């Protein structure tokens, strides 16, 4: 009942009026001083608040559809994440769109049970992150919009882990949309409320990328030190590993004006210690090519960008193709043209 009031923004008196109870009785129920033990009273409360009966411990045949929807939704969100990580973000989008639409329609009808809202928050995050992989730069604000919508929901749960997760994903999409100050602010909050080292390890690499993009030398260096301190204590993931951190360090050093340091590090890329998402190889190749050009290694940059363009085309990563175009610029016209052609093909497919 407390959760219901939080979602709908009503006080105990308003809830009591809705249910036909006195405010003091609502308070006693919420504090556990009184209990609704009879099935008829619980069923009446479920009907009044549009809650599925199982929420209050009532077995009901009509509740089967709700349970099936939640179970199906949980599976959809998990599979979409696996699909995105394996380099098929467009398929993840296709799975998540109808789920989000169904959940939002249920909420609009007044059904605000905890499991549905929890699922909705995760589905919105998943949809935003998947869109962030398949949209070109000029449309990345759409991805940030969907991750932002998850924040409206997670606040109801008062769960630091869930809030840190949603802020982390939203902050990263803001960075990609070039809203760097907002990105750093969200990611700093995500790191501050992360409940354990594993959650912090998921935030810190993204915060380091955002701090570097913002040009904040002090924050970038501090976060990189914190991240590396965790490498021996936390299991490695597709983002949190020495290979990914090497790319983040290279890009951050260049963005903060320390090109010489980046040049010294570029040839010392560590081996991957875990399975990497396909897009990370593209990200690393483009960053390395940028540093190679700064070192006047045109041959190495050509090889890196050619490999990146092939992989970004296969993985359908328009944002990375745009990074390739910026990196190639006028110095490597053939690589710029190849990336532009690949980007145009993806745009035509998206328009169709």
Summarize the structure.
The mean pLDDT is 90. By secondary structure, this protein is an all-alpha fold.
Describe the structure.
With 352 residues, the protein is mainly alpha-helical. Among the domains are: 60 residues, lambda repressor-like DNA-binding domains (434 Repressor (Amino-terminal Domain)), CATH 1.10.260; 76 residues, no CATH class. It is built from 18 helices and no strands.
Sequence of secondary-structure elements: HHHHHHHHHHHHHHHHHH
What kind of sheet is the major sheet? Answer: none
Terminal CA distance reads 48 Å
Class from secondary-structure proportions: mainly alpha
Q: Report strand %.
A: under 5%
- How many E strands? 0
Shape, please? Answer: elongated
The number of helical elements comes to 18
Give the uncertain stretches in residue-range form.
none
Overall helicity: over 70%
Q: How much is the radius of gyration in Å? A: 24 Å
Could you tell me the mean pLDDT?
Answer: 90
């Amino acid at each position: 009942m407390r959760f219901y009031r939080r979602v709908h923004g009503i006080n105990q008196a308003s809830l009591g009026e809705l249910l036909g109870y006195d405010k003091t009785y609502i308070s006693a129920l919420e504090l556990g001083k009184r209990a609704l033990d009879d099935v008829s009273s619980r069923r009446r409360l479920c009907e009044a608040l549009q809650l599925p009966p199982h929420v209050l411990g009532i077995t009901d045949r009509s509740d089967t559809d709700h349970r099936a929807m939640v179970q199906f939704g949980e599976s959809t969100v998990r599979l979409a994440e696996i699909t995105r990580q394996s380099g098929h973000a467009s398929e993840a989008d296709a799975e998540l769109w109808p789920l989000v639409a169904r959940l939002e329609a249920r909420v609009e009808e007044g059904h605000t049970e905890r499991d549905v809202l929890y699922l909705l928050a995760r589905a919105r995050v998943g949809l935003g992150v998947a869109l962030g992989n398949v949209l070109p730069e000029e449309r990345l604000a759409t991805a940030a919009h969907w991750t932002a919508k998850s924040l409206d929901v997670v606040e109801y749960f008062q769960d630091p882990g869930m809030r840190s997760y949603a802020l982390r994903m939203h902050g990263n999409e803001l960075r990609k949309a070039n809203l760097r100050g907002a990105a750093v602010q969200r990611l700093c909050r995500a790191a501050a409320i992360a409940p354990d080292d594993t959650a912090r390890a998921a935030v810190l690499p993204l915060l380091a990328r955002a701090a570097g993009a913002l040009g904040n030398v002090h924050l970038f260096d501090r976060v990189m030190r914190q991240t590396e301190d965790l490498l021996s204590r936390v299991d490695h993931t597709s983002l949190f590993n020495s290979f990914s951190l090497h790319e983040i360090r290279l890009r951050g050093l260049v963005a903060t004006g320390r090109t010489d340091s980046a040049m010294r590090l570029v040839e010392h890329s560590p081996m991957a210690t875990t399975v990497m998402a396909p897009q990370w190889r593209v990200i690393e190749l483009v960053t390395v090519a940028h540093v190679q050009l700064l070192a006047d290694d045109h041959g190495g940059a050509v090889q890196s960008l050619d490999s990146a363009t092939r992989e970004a085309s296969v993985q359908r990563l328009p944002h990375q193709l745009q990074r390739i175009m910026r990196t190639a610029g006028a110095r490597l016209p053939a690589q710029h043209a190849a990336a532009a052609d690949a980007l145009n093909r993806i745009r035509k497919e998206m328009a169709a």
